[in-house]
Amino acid sequence: MIESFDAKKFPREKMVILYGAAMYGELAFHALQELDIPAFSFCDRVQAGEKFCGLPVIAPEELRRYPEAYVLICATKGFQGIYNYLQQISCRHCYEISDLLPFLDYQKLPAYCRQLPVDELVEKYRFYLSQQEPASRDHLSLSFVALSITERCTLRCKKCSVLAPYYEKPCDDSYESIIAPFKSFLSCVDSIAELQIGGGEPFMNRDLGRILEWCLAQEKIKEISIFTNSTIIPNPALVRILADQKIKLLLDDYGILSRNLKSIVELCDQEGIRYLIQRFERWDDLGGYHDKQETDEQVARKFRYCSFGNVMSFMKGRLYRCTTAARIADLGLISDKPDDYVDFNRVQSSSSWKEQIIQLIYHKKFHEGCRLCNGISTYKLGIPVAEQL
Fold first, then answer.
1. Are the C-beta atoms of residues 234 and 273 closer than 8 Å to each other?
2. Which H or E run includes 258?
3. Could you give the CA distance from residue 171 to residue 169 in angstroms, rounded to a whole number?
């Protein structure tokens, strides 16, 4: 079990590096400021070479230069992969930040960091940590689940991580086809910290409103996020649902491609809809989806350190450990392998499903789809964002 950062025991002469240049990284930065503890830099694969909160952002490989630094993991997705990587490169002092966050002065935080009260921010972070604990048949909490509801998209991104442009006849998943198996899945878990609804472009699915209403009624689902490319303005009926404070929009900013971003932001501000604008300078190159002719050991190693390898993905009634791998299988690029997923389209007992979920989360070595994918932690960044076919 990774230790929580204890500010009282922190040697002030030591260097602090915050791993994760996003909201929780900024929260940790502000908490350190309240304690007069200076941070040396951030570490983030996507924003390496940039600045965040006025500090330089280094790449994960550069951490090798600072073996004595105190690395605080502020990421909320791919936590296990990050921790494994830090262990691999012999970082001696790795900590999570749940005991640091209560030192925040809520009133000093920027607006987008004040989406939840501090105690709820701490609780949510601890949910993200839950996959660090061994699962049991008595309790199973998941930090993050991605729910795919459509193959359709308004963009045709050449390097789309969910392979949306490669569907010859893309279609939506209906309310009935989504909710029935997802209800069975939800019966097997105690809670989901964040359910992220995506596609494709989720606003293209006409059943989105009904899907959201059902999800909002489930106490086990703590928060719902909707991943959109900011091309579609939601209709008035959907706006009323989106105003629920359990929901937040993740608005991609792809410049002129995100043609309705400004209008959506104005609508959110007017209707009290929570949102976060996501600007990406670069994307990972997941490859051309052909067999890399790697050994099982090489594929397992790639999967172990891939951030996508810890993204539980629910698609067409099946639970996977990776959305990209799920799409590769759905497109028929690999042969079907039943132990790559838990199939909730089949009728069986909750205890049997639960055991399969535990096996998938804690004992899965890799997906067959990993043989066709580069992964996102071993290849350099730098490809254009949202380059269109």
1. no
2. none
3. 6
Longest CA–CA separation in the chain, Å: 60
Query: Which neighbouring-strand residues pair with 198?
Result: 148
Q: What six digits make up the tokens of 201?
A: 């472009």
Q: Residues 105, 34: contact at Cβ < 8 Å? A: yes
For residue 92, which amino acid is it? Answer: R
How many other CB atoms are there within 10 angstroms of residue 6's CB atom? 10
The enclosing H or E element of 52 equals strand 51-52
- What is the residue type of 313? S
Count Cα neighbours of 127 within 13 Å in the Cβ-side half-sphere: 22
Between the CA of residue 51 and those of 113, 221, 294, what are the distances in Å?
Answer: 18, 34, 36
- Considering only the top CATH level, what class is 7-121? alpha beta
Amino acid letter, 197: I
Query: DSSP class of residue 256?
Result: G
3-state secondary structure of 377: coil
Which residues fall within 8 angstroms of residue 28, CB to CB, at 6 or more apart? 18, 72, 74, 97, 100, 101
- With 90 as the cut, is the pLDDT of residue 361 above it? no
| Pick from 56, 60, 62: nearest CA to 84 | 60
In this structure, are strands 247-252 and 274-278 parallel, antiparallel, or unpaired? parallel
Tell me which residue of 301, 292, 340 sits closest to 81, measured CA to CA.
301
Measured CA to CA in angstroms, residue 95 lies from 52, 86, 193, 263 at distances of: 20, 11, 21, 40
pLDDT of 202 above 60? yes
CATH number for region 134-372 = 3.20.20.70
Q: Could you state, in order of their start, the residue ranges of all structural domains in the chain?
A: 7-121, 134-372
Can you give the three-state secondary structure of 161-177, one letter per residue?
CCCHHHCCCCCECCHHH
Q: Over 50: is that where the pLDDT of 177 sits?
A: yes
Cα–Cα distance for residue pair 248/23, rounded to 1 Å: 14
* Higher local confidence (pLDDT), 205 or 310: 205
Please check the confidence at residue 92 and state whether its pLDDT lies above 70. Answer: yes
Q: How far, in whole angstroms, is CA 280 from its chain's centroid?
A: 15
